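quick one
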Amino acid sequence: MSEEQLSQHRDAIDAIDEQIIQLLNQRASHARTIGEIKGSGIVYRPEREAQVLSRVKALNRGPLSGETMAKLFREIMSACLALERPLTIAYLGPEGTFSQAAAIKQFGHAAHTMACCSIDEAFRVVEAKTADYVVAPVENSTEGAVGRTLDLMVNTPLKICGEVVLRIHHHLLRKVEGKAGLQRVYSHAQSLSQCHEWLNKNLPAEVQRVSVSSNAEAARLASLDESSAAIAGDAAAENYALLSLAQNIEDEPNNTTRFLVLGMQEVGPSGRDKTSLVISAPNRPGALHTLVEPLARNGVSMDKFESRPSRAGLWEYVFFVDVEGHVSGAPLQAALNELADVAAFVKVLGSYPVAVI
Ligand SMILES: O=C(O)C(=O)C[C@]1(C(=O)O)C=C[C@@H](O)C=C1
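structure w/ prephenic acid:
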């Protein structure tokens, strides 16, 4: 390609960039006016955001992929929303955790993220209105449910407003090159077990595995001591300037974590929604069947069913159920009315759009 051709294309890009700037600012002005119309009400509308992102993917004809286009629009909406009112999102810190990555995936880079020292604390700051939303892990494809998040949802006044699905890549990180002199590996217990086959094959048995409160905390500890390594993701590696001795060491190649977004808000229907419920059965034979039956009879599809020991009594259980559809829809309304008669306890944790990106 000649220099002349190159500069023709660059001139074209400059002209397009001018149009993009104008169009983005037109879009932002509309968002700001929408913010004025909302007044002091809730500015974040996850159902609308899901519709915008789905539409962007459907309209896209390439060469950029639908996923890439949706990610760009996520950031555009994040910046537009910040003009209405900047949001603060609580997550299990310190900086660089997968929870923070999930918060940014859902709210974009214009939102402020607030690191909390536990999932409990992250719920508390939103309940106390010090932050607007909490993003908390709820299940991992390899390790299953995150019990603490499930337990907190039983009593919190917060509602689920959204879900974030994040591919989890773990790396072995260290301050210095090579494995010589390595005495211990820090990570969160879930990450240690997500990588345990790799660890068995690739590290001597005498290297201790130490579980700590988060992967980012593991990276912080590894950054202080050359005889330690950490298992953590890209953000933690970058934050603590660690070298990656081995990449993508998770045993399960599709290792994915699902996070929930919770806030003081009930979300309207987006057209493609999920509803999460927590139900408990009276302690007698066949009770479980009586819980599932009203859902099946009303044609409500169940995505997930997870049992957890109830805090109330020994050998009593609560069931976390995800179903398709919005709580305002007729099938779910009918099923919930029937469930109220047979269940010992039913709580709608929230209806929210199915993750688009
Ligand atoms: O439609 C709205 O309610 C807006 O505030 C605009 C907008 C957007 O940028 O498209 C921004 C934030 C909301 O969460 C949803 C959408």
